[in-house]
Amino acid sequence: MINPEIKVKGLSKSFGSVEAVKGVSFEVEKGDIFGFLGPNGAGKTTTINMLTGLARPDGGSIELGGLDCTSDRKPVQHLIGVVPDESSLYPELTGIENLCFCGALYGMRKKERIARAKELLDTVGLADAAKRRFGGYSKGMGRRLTIAAGVIHKPSVLFLDEPTTGIDVVSARTIRSMIRSLNENGTTVFLTTHYLEEAERLCDRVAFIRSGRIVLTDTMEGLLKKDRRGEAILLRFDGEGDALAESILRSAFPAVSFEPSGRGAVTARSETYLSVGAMVRTLEDGGFEVLEARRIASTLEDVFLQVAEMEEER
Fold it and tell me: Residue 264: CB partners within 8 Å, gap ≥ 6?
């Protein structure tokens, strides 16, 4: 990348004898939604804490918006918004009071921050709860307000740490919609999550971190092409004898592996191209009526599990 919005090189952090982050390097392009994925304890939160100034790196460098901010966050403070995994808003203040207070911290004038707070409360579906104390909000409502607080000053880069963990479905949907909207309006988003389906829905590029090291970085399209299992076809059929159907298929296609996928269904896998039509004809010739035959697209979870297996083998 010529001018990345976020540039991290050789970042490391230890806590006593525990090396939490080990020489992490990556770049995030301006306008991207970048997913930082990994299991619990992989180093995601430690990394985002260093990027946002909540933790000081032991080594390496950080650039945001082209500015070196490895040891001093002040030059970029106005450029970034931060949404931690645990809210730091005040329970005794109302929703709108919390947002206005955050706006004041960024130097926004009173009229400007009140107007922006009302706009955001409407955006996140909390206009009716604007004058309720934050301490009385549900977890989902609280997370939505925390995100609103993180973008009160219209930052160009937004850091989100596990934004939808442990909240209800409706709030999670609202948050994902807000992330997309912010990104469409030019905000670069750095997102940590262990929800692979969420990352697949939202992200342009993804990095996998495991045991403090990045093991894979690519575009979403590129990652899904890394599925080592190759082609996969799901076949559903109407007829007696799942075992017979598998036997017929194995005999006709000895180089292909077949695995049961529920009653009246089997999945074919091969590292090379599979012909849907040939398999359908084989089953029909064997007396089975084929109800469905479709290629199975790789998911981010498939790739992640394979990366984890590769790391364990090393």
Answer: 236, 237, 238, 239, 242, 291
Task: Give the Cβ contact number of residue 281 at 10 Å.
Answer: 13
Does position 312 have pLDDT exceeding 80, yes or no?
Answer: no
Per-residue pLDDT of 172-223, as tens digits, reads 888 988 999 999 999 999 999 877 778 878 999 999 898 899 988 988 777 7
Residues in the chain: 314
68-126 residue pLDDT tens: 999 888 888 889 999 998 898 999 999 999 999 999 999 999 999 999 999 999 999 99
Predicted confidence at residue 221, as pLDDT, reads 74
In the beta sheet, which residues pair with residue 193? 37
Q: Which residues pair with 259 in a beta bridge?
A: 267
Contact (CB, 8 A) for 130 and 105: no
Q: Distances in Å between the alpha carbon of 259 and those of 28, 98, 104, 228, 250?
A: 40, 55, 60, 17, 10
pTM for the model stands at 0.76
Q: Which domains does the chain have, with CATH numbers?
A: 6-224 (3.40.50.300), 231-297 (3.30.70.100)
